[in-house]
Specification:
By secondary structure, the chain is mostly helical. The chain contains ten helices and two strands. It is globular. The chain starts with a helix and ends with a helix.
């Protein structure tokens, strides 16, 4: 019988988006039913497989996306969101496969739940793109999200500090404004998708902050001081206000910590 790490590696190396979604949902379902032992016998790949037809650009080379309600701008927005959610599947799988053995059952359960959520998010957005006459991979995408994973591949604390507690937390800040803009365009279906994503992302960031605090307790570190040190060391961008303080509070983030780095 395959173990959890083998199933995760196989899903990470699945390039086609719909196949990756199905592989992710299947492995989570099998693990929850006790059919996939939580054993970690294989290493994770340095990079996941993505579709060959997806054009990847440096973040600084990405075309500027218009903010108007034209069909072209709307497709560009949803394509960008699709890419974020697609990479988020791999980020959640990788953190389990790479660090699950040292972190334990609660960590594995939390981040497999995140992976299942991200797979659903991607499927919802891909379906929306299809109804607009478009598909994921039609437009270029940037590679910045996976660069963060590569930079933190050697330390679970650094991975938690950057991916859930910076990158996903940024989603808490920007999604409400996007949701309002989508609602103003009369897109109630899009608004429902974004509301679901926002609610789920609070739980995702909370999982990251909870396990980060546990690591800090084990290492005898102050969570706030240690997080700021890791962000300065591993995050290439800047933390930019305005912040969604209520969502960040619900996700367990320290306002003095992130405001100090803004």
């Amino acid at each position: 019988m395959a173990d959890l790490s083998t199933a995760i590696r196989d899903a990470l190396l699945t390039a086609e988006p719909r196949d990756k979604v199905m592989a992710t949902r299947r492995l989570v379902r099998e693990w929850r039913k006790g059919r996939l032992p939580a054993q970690f016998t294989v290493e994770m790949p340095d990079r996941p497989a993505w579709p060959d037809r997806l054009e990847l650009l440096h973040p600084g080379q990405m075309p500027k996306r218009g903010r108007g309600g034209s069909e072209r701008n709307r497709i560009a927005l949803w394509h960008s969101l699709a890419h974020i959610e697609f990479v988020a599947i791999d980020l959640a799988l990788d953190i389990v496969g790479r660090f699950g053995g040292q972190m334990g059952d609660a960590f594995v359960a939390d981040f497999l739940a995140v992976a299942a959520d991200e797979a659903i998010h991607f499927a919802l957005i891909e379906r929306k793109l299809n109804r607009m006459g478009a598909s994921y991979t039609d437009l270029p995408a940037h590679d910045g999200l996976w660069s963060a994973a590569q930079d933190t591949a050697g330390d679970v604390a650094a991975r938690l500090a950057i991916v859930p507690m910076v990158l996903e937390a940024r989603g808490l800040d920007v999604t409400p404004a996007t949701l309002e803009r989508v609602q103003a365009q009369g897109d109630e279906n899009g608004a429902r998708i974004l509301k679901r994503i926002l609610d789920d992302e609070i739980r995702h960031v909370r999982a990251g902050s909870t396990h980060f605090e546990e690591i800090c307790r084990r290492r005898g570190e102050s969570a706030e001081i240690y997080w700021k040190m890791l962000v300065k060391r591993h995050f290439r961008g800047a933390l930019k206000p305005p912040f969604n303080d209520s969502a960040r509070l619900a996700a367990g983030l320290s306002r003095p910590a992130y405001e100090a780095l803004a």
